[in-house]
Design a protein that fits this description.
The protein is of the alpha/beta class and about 325 residues long. It folds into two domains: about 120 residues, NAD(P)-binding Rossmann-like Domain (Rossmann fold), CATH 3.40.50; about 180 residues, NAD(P)-binding Rossmann-like Domain (Rossmann fold). Helix content is about 35%, strand content about 15%. It contains 13 helices and twelve strands. The chain has a seven-stranded parallel beta sheet with strand order 8-7-6-9-10-11-12, with helices on both faces. The longest helix is centred in the last third of the chain and has 19 residues. It starts with a strand and ends in a 10-residue tail after the last helix.
């Protein structure tokens, strides 16, 4: 058995039980380069039974050329939009992800983005560095404000106690709502339009798929409060960037803070230069703890598939 690993951002200590399980049952090979072209990736996975993929985009043309030996592509991440799931399924290749592995770290980060947004911290830091000693604008207190969480999955659920610590009111929308969690944690489950209309701050914490692309559209922005703050740690493509930029310029959206953008890296686009925008380079999950957990789950998923054991993290 051979496991090929292209992921360089998530690692396990050599004495970690899951790493030992992998190296004792398979040949484990880590790519020497952090970024591989499609041709380099194809060459690297020859003879492999499993691929632990990092930032690789694995689309249909590439999947059609993958070796017949490959049985599983395992993502050390929650998101799996970099892999064409349908094309992999047609080749009989299972695709796995690592749900919940980075939830605590990402929840910490999006709360940080929220605070930076409502208090204009990043602009102020830049001003001080440039010799200016004056606030650009007044912020607002979080206590008593209403946040709306779109996507009450693992990350959204971790945001809840953090927001409660600021004495905030919490609304949530999710097509697969966990009503028990809401009841036990003081979350008000509401229809999407009510969340959009009532929230001072909206968190976007849901997967990117065909139904969520451009989910935050011109029409949905129009339903939001004037001056709303948007915090995005879903994917950049869940937001219509043109509609968002127009709303920022008009003041309809007061501030936008995102750890994701479309494309990544973004190049030179007007949105990233707007003074009421913070964009960071997809680092919300980048903690030692989260990276270790992501690789642990990714390896466990791959080994379970290869050993014909039940694997709960196969993407359907």
């Amino acid at each position: 058995m051979k496991i090929a690993i292209t992921c360089h951002y998530a690692k396990l200590p050599e004495d970690h039980p899951t790493w030992l399980r992998a190296v004792n049952s398979a040949e484990v090979e880590l790519s020497k380069k952090p970024f591989l072209s499609s041709d380099e990736l194809l060459e690297f996975v020859q003879g492999a039974d499993a691929l632990i993929s990092g930032t690789d985009f694995i689309r249909e043309p590439l999947i059609s050329k993958l070796p017949d030996s490959l049985k599983v592509i395992s993502r050390p991440a929650v998101g799996y939009d970099r892999v064409d799931i349908q094309a992999a399924r047609r080749r009989g290749i299972a695709v796995c992800n690592a749900p919940g592995s980075n939830a605590e770290s990402v929840a910490d980060y999006v709360i940080g983005l929220m605070i930076c947004a409502v208090r204009d911290i990043c602009n102020n830091v830049c001003d001080v560095r440039n010799g200016k000693w004056k606030a650009r604008r007044k912020g607002f207190a979080l206590s008593g404000k209403t946040i709306g969480i779109i996507g009450l999955g693992a990350i959204g659920k971790c945001v809840v106690p953090r927001a409660k610590g600021f004495n905030m009111n919490i609304l949530a929308y999710d097509p697969y709502m966990d009503f028990t969690f809401c009841e036990e944690n003081g979350v008000d489950p509401v229809p999407l339009d009510r969340l959009l209309a009532k929230s001072d701050i909206i968190f976007l914490l849901f997967p990117l798929n065909d139904s969520t692309r451009n989910f935050i559209s011109k029409e949905r922005i129009a339903k939001m409060k004037d001056g709303v703050v948007l915090v995005n740690d879903a994917r950049g493509a869940v937001v219509d960037h043109t509609a968002l930029y127009d709303a920022l310029c008009s003041g309809k959206v007061g501030f936008y803070a995102g750890d994701v953008i479309e494309p990544e890296p973004p190049g030179d686009m007007p949105l990233i230069h707007h003074e009421n925008v913070i964009i960071t380079s997809h680092i919300g999950a980048d903690t030692y703890e989260a990276n270790e957990k992501m690789m642990e789950i990714a390896l466990e998923n791959a080994l379970d598939v290869l050993e014909n054991k039940p694997c709960k993290n196969i993407v359907n």
